Amino acid sequence: MIEFIVITCFASLRSIVVVDLLGLEKLTNAFGLLLLFQGVAAIIGAPLAAAFMNATGSYNASFYLSGSMLLASAIMCYPLNWINKWEKRRNGQSNKAVPV
Fold first, then answer.
1. From the DSSP assignment, how many helices (H) and strands (E) are in the chain?
2. How far, in Å, CA of 26 to CA of 5, rounded?
């Protein structure tokens, strides 16, 4: 039951986060690229996990790899809000400096 709730929250918040970071005008392109990378990860993930299982003889390495990849993606996503605010400030300042 809890897995269904988490998946539903992720699916419903994905569009909101993309609009917040990139704007409504770029939603379709950003959402398409997001789904592309999720699909590539899903295609590559299972054979990679099987290769780790065959190499080590245990599923532990596959789960550790999966967990470390999730942790790495969370660490990369952490500064996105700060970078987004910085870019909006920079673009706002550059737009004001251009004479009309």
1. 4, 0
2. 27
